[in-house]
UniProtKB/TrEMBL annotation:
UniProt record similarity statement: Belongs to the short-chain dehydrogenases/reductases (SDR) family.
Keywords: Oxidoreductase
InterPro entries named in the record: KR_dom, NAD(P)-bd_dom_sf, SDR_fam
Pfam families in the record: adh_short_C2
Protein name in UniProt: SDR family oxidoreductase
Superkingdom, taxonomy of origin: Bacteria
Signal peptide (UniProt feature, chain positions): none
MF GO annotations: oxidoreductase activity
Upper lineage: Bacteria, Pseudomonadati, Pseudomonadota, Alphaproteobacteria, Rhodobacterales
UniProt KW Cell inner membrane keyword: no
SMART domains (UniProt xref): PKS_KR
Ranges where the Ketoreductase domain occurs: 13-192
Species whose genome carries this gene: Aliigemmobacter aestuarii
Amino acid sequence: MTELPTFPDLKGASVFITGGGSGIGAALTEGFLRQGAKVAFVQRSDGSAFCDAMEKATGNRPLFLPCDITDIGALEGAIAAAAKAHGPVTVLVNNAANDQRHKTLETDESFWDWSIAINLKAYFFAAKAAIPGMQAAGGGSIVNFSSISYMMGNAGYPVYTTANSGINGMTRSLAREFGPNRIRVNALAPGWVLTQKQKDKWVTPEGLKAHLDRQCIPDPLEPADIVGGCLFLASNASRAMTGQALVIDGGVVVTG
């Protein structure tokens, strides 16, 4: 992993990451572990081997809690288990998502419900479960992963882009509601990050070239490129920043 700044307040922090054992999530877990944080993560597939690898690489072992985040009861239970093991969760990273391609006229209600459950509903209920502990601790940080896909008006996954846009609205409302408790809520919107899943399913030479031509910086994005921004949002370095969307996309979407 690229060498990152150290954020002293993250040492010993109780961090909970959804989808923290693969793709961007795995890079985030490693990044927080290297800060000395106590990291718990959930995913459906077995994360034991990843935990072994992280302990060997960082000297800090994460806590893997098997969970399907669409099962809200199980998600709430996992957050409670993380709090029991590590103390109240003061950094929540809602990272897990699924950008399954689909077409509007071929989308049925069950697919809509499935996609929203993963990409939006779970974010809300994870925040709801973590916030009381943050209130008791005197503050915390929630980082909701979105995407630039809805900003670009991309076709090919309309329910996913709907959820991404909803994440921004939810982020702003939670920031306003819980700011008095010193709970900060921000969104992080990556560009096209070349995870193994993206390479296996969606990346083509032509598509990648067209996307890189839209970036200001010509280099493909890797999961490690997203870690620094997430650490910043989680740490007290961003203590006055809430209700915002941080874009890390190589300069496809220029804001301001």
